[in-house]
Amino acid sequence: MSQNADVHVVAPEMAVSFLKGIMPFDSLDDATLNDLARHCRVDFYPKGTRLLTTGETEITHLYLIQRGGVKAFIKDEQGEVTLKDFRGVGAYIGALGIIRGTPANLNIETVEDTFCFLLPREIFLKLVAQEPTFAHYYLKSFSEKIVTTAYNELRHHKVSKRSGDDLYLFSVRVGDLVKSLRKVSSASSIQQAAASMAEFRVGSLLVYDPMNEEDIVGIITDRDLRGKVVAAGLDYNLPVKEIMTSPVQSVLSQSLCFDVLLKMMGTSIHHLAVERGGRVIGVVTSHDIMLLQGHSPYYLFKEIRGQQEFSGLYVLAQKIPEVIRSLIKEGAKAGNITQMIAILNDHILERMLTLLEEELGPPPVPYCWLLMGSEGRREQTFKTDQDNAILYADPVNAEEKSAAESYFKKFAAKAIDHLVNCGYPLCPGEIMAINPKWCQPLSVWKGYFSHWIDAPDPAELLHATIFFDFRSGFGDSNLARELRRHLNKKARAKDIFLFHLARQCMSTRVPLSFFKNFIVNRDGEHKNQLNIKHQGLTPFVNFARVLALKHGISETNTLARLKALFAGDFLDQELWAAANDAYELQMQQRLIHQLAQIEEGVLPDNHINPEQLSDLERRMLKEAFAVIERLYSVLDKMYPVA
User: Fold this and answer.
1) Domain shared by 32 and 102, yes or no
2) How far apart are CA 249 and CA 267, in angstroms?
3) DSSP 221-270
4) Calpha distance 556→560 (Å, rounded)
5) Same structural domain for residues 135 and 209?
6) Spatial contact of 258 and 332, defined as CB atoms under 8 Å apart
7) φ and ψ at residue 565, rounded to 5 degrees
8) Buried residues in 344-363 as b, exposed as e (16+ CB within 10 A)
9) Which of 257, 554, 548, 559 is nearest to 379 (CA)?
């Protein structure tokens, strides 16, 4: 039995408006919708309310989520969750049980305060019987055979099987989600805008210039109305331009929904304008995209940003591999997967350091938490340790210097401990902020890079290359930009430094013999295996780094560096495409290998046995390795041995 906190009789026109906006009710005629509306009611369920329990709850109503969200999950015999997905605005709950005449087949709990329209079971069944289009929608979604097979497999193998619909993130273009363009003049009053949002039941309005309705100059959201108007006591008669956000961030209508999700999570912007042919055609929201995928990374993202306790972050960080696991099984590209890992890891770090600042008080000088190595390149996989540092502004006097050293020593120690508790192991080489050498002011960091560049020592450079991929992880990013400008200026002027980097890159042997057979370890722990990270991926990373430093490119991600080199006409199109594909293929192979190890309860590594690959996989891997020889040829011509 659901534990609803409040019950509302709903105005029929409100129910009709809602039903018209969701499938498959939007296919019904007005007379049918009006009849349904008379039977609807609205229930409110606080966060954490159990709506349905597997095998127990008799389903008396179809639930339609009007606001908020729920998680659906099942447990195995040991009480472990074997399937979990999330459902947001417009999603339904209980349809399968009603049609099959069985108790609930899933546990359903609210993950935030949630409002649901409730449609009585008898009315829903009558619709299924009388409306062919309506029935087809639900029966297509869950035939008994598919559901039974999937759940049996889940319980026995503890592997989340996903329906084909979950591939929408990687196939649907964002333009397909836009239904209508709702906008308001910047000269209109706030009250008029609020009335329009209520009339159209939307959470945002685009704002146009009154002199040209095609010129979109801003956006307002329901959050703006709450925070900037109601909470601030602002006059409702003021024009919309006083509270709008400008300019509007936008995406192209042909963008994949997954790419848009990455942008939303990376920028913390939840409403994006959608452009087609140079014109804005509507708005896409985070809720729109969440509806496309059950096990949504966005829900984890929201939980991380709202976390108030360090211990809560420990738990959430452990959920990241499961999100990534789902993306791999859905066929996401390696580049998209590593971007998602980086975004989620970055938000764990941001929230953790924000809580730490609240605990220790504000720092005595501005600082930037630097991420380096694979973190700096946004190329982490399931196996990633810590590579970080602290860069802070130069103190103005001895007192400020002492205060900064004391603060950041304590700050770094606590931060590293929290990261370990989140599941990020310590760096074996001690390249971490807790090491006093890597917790220094800007002038010292500039000195480090000047030393590495002006007097390049091959042995020292071998260990220093990890620092050349730094990026800002948290704090004052201007400090990182200033250090990057210093690095680029110094590197471009020192051919001898670039020569040593290039020759170091070419020192990694291509893992193919003269007859194009794989070169593997012949004995030891990893007999008959090759290290796909060091032998396959690292040459691409090193090549892209050398050319990026040579041409002053500030990107740190390998694929982004290669793209920038092509865009700058420093790399021909054919080689860029070949390198891009070869790198993605190997990264995909690495991720799949590590996922298989995790599912077997083995710590993930980078050692692959080519004999365990299919013929096609072996052929493609050989072709990818062959591209390394072409990259080496480019470097050899640029930096020949005299």
Assistant:
1) yes
2) 10
3) EHHHIIIIIITTT--TTSBGGGT-BSSPPEEETTSBHHHHHHHHHHHT--
4) 7
5) no
6) yes
7) -65, -40
8) bbbbbbbbbbebbeeeeeeb
9) 559
Average pLDDT of the chain, as a whole number? 85
Beta bridge partners of 85: 72
Q: Domain boundary residue among 258, 290, 322?
A: 290
Window from 85-99, 153-167, 478-492 with minimum mean pLDDT = 153-167
Element at 378 (helix H, strand E): none
Asked whether 330 and 295 are in contact (CB, 8 A), the reply is no
Sequence-distant (6+) residues with CB within 8 A of 435 are none
Q: Residue 559's closest CA among 535, 543, 536?
A: 543
190 and 91 both lie in a single domain: no
Are residues 184 and 154 part of one domain?
A: no
The overall pTM is greater than 0.70: no
DSSP, collapsed to helix, strand or coil, labels residue 139 as helix
pLDDT at 24 over 70: yes
**Domain end: 290, 315, 350, which one?**
290
Apex 310 CA angle, 305 and 314, nearest 5: 85
Q: Give per-residue pLDDT as tens, 101-154.
A: 788 878 898 888 888 899 999 999 888 888 777 776 676 554 333 333 333 333
Phi-psi domain of 378 (left: phi exceeds 0; alpha: psi -120 through 50; beta: other): left
Question: pLDDT band at residue 78, thresholds of 50, 70 and 90?
Answer: low
Fill in the amino acid letter for 288.
D
Residues 571-589 have a mean pLDDT of: 90
Closest CA to 190 of 145, 148, 242, 146: 242
Report the CATH number at residue 246: 3.10.580.10
State the residue range of the domain holding 226. Answer: 174-290
Whether 32 contacts 82, CB under 8 Å: no
CA separation for the pair 59, 108 (Å, rounded): 12
Examine the pLDDT at 620 and tell me if it is beyond 50.
yes
Tokens for 301? Answer: 């993202």
User: Which residues touch 172 (CB under 8 Å, ≥6 apart)?
Assistant: 256, 257, 292
Band of pLDDT at residue 99, cut at 50, 70 and 90: confident
571 vs 547: CA distance, rounded Å: 9
- Read off the amino acid at residue 320: I
25-31-36 Cα angle (round to 5): 55
Can you say whether the dihedral through the CA atoms of 475, 476, 477, 483 is positive or negative? Answer: negative
Average pLDDT in the 224-238 region?
89
